[in-house]
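The following block was generated as part of the benchmark described in Methods. Ligand: iron/sulfur cluster.
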Amino acid sequence: MSTPEALVNRPHGGIQPSEAASREAPMHTFHATEALSEADRLMTVCNSCRYCEGLCAVFPAMEMRRSFADGDLNYLANLCHACGACYVDCQFSPPHEFNVNVPRVFAKVRNDSYRMYVWPRALAPLFERNGLAISLITAVSVGLFFFGLMAINDPAVMFGVQTGPGAFYRILSHNAMAAIFGAAFFYAVGALIMGFRLFWRDIGETRATLTNHVSVWRAMRDAMTLRYLDGGGPGCVNEDERPTDRRRLYHHLTFYGFLLCLASTTTATFYHYIVDHPAPYAWYDLPVVLGTLGGIGLLVGPAGLLWAKAKRDPALRDENGRGMEHAFTVMLFLVSLTGMLLLVLRATPAMGTLLALHMGFVFGFFVTMPYSKFVHGIYRFGALVRYAKERRALHEPTPSKARALGIPSSTAGR
Ligand code: SF4
Ligand code: SF4
């Protein structure tokens, strides 16, 4: 029986059905999970075939390797944008006996990797039944804010009409808000950085790569445009084999909506502390304009993503990851919905209730950021930085350059 290395070294297209992708074939590397073993098998088959090399970054990155350790597979899986193109284009996808389904297997590897890199390790079980965990944490957060604010406020304040400068802070002082949300946000950022460090080390990267501004800039450009969600040009596939750009559009609306909301909060903090202009703001003030645009993006984007997920071909999904994806997307939608309702109804008796609900969802979102689907953006960005570095080495293949970038010289010139 041929070894996987022998298969990889064959001329293009040299796979033999009887030997190449046998699922019973012994693995040349021991892997931590079944999904990683299966990903190794698929990458060995794909490395012999290479039909999909123009579709995304995964296949060129795969071609730089002859064997696949766990770190390599976690890198490739997080580089995959789940566009589905390589599944519909593959002549070896089910029912073919090779059973090649890269999007599904990489989705499993990705979801497992979130649990592997979580910080602190004791919270890894939160990724086991993530949908339930996120829902419970958020429900507790919303309950605590609602009943907590009812307990500390006179009902006439909580359920009365509050208008004018500082209206929100009659329900909860600005200092208390800043302390609660600042602590939650900085904890989340710290936990995300620690998780990223584990990922970075596991895929064999060093800090030097992150200080290479060319690689980081190219990765940012690829991430901001979702370059690899285009299925090689025509768009990604979802419910059928017809490619469209809908998922990319919904993802953009969600991502940029989130950034605009963040910009709105930052501007409001500047107004409050630097120019002594407390909320609520008029509809034409910058925090409201940014927040309204971001809020619309965070309503339409997550709603579209949920609709696309509901229709997605089950063959492309990792069923175990559905709860996590839904919980995160619904959470974003509810953060935005309560924020928009608060904006519209802030001069009515509903303001106190909506403020409590909105703060409950925002707090729940912050504390679960390192334990939710949010992490996919962090690891994918890291994978894009690494790929940008490898791509540069590939196109500037001098041995000294390759050594400086940490790429094995045997792969640098291909
Ligand atoms: S997904 Fe299929 S067609 Fe594409 S490279 Fe792999 S084996 Fe070849
Ligand atoms: S699903 Fe799309 S992004 Fe992922 S490996 Fe296949 S073609 Fe590349």
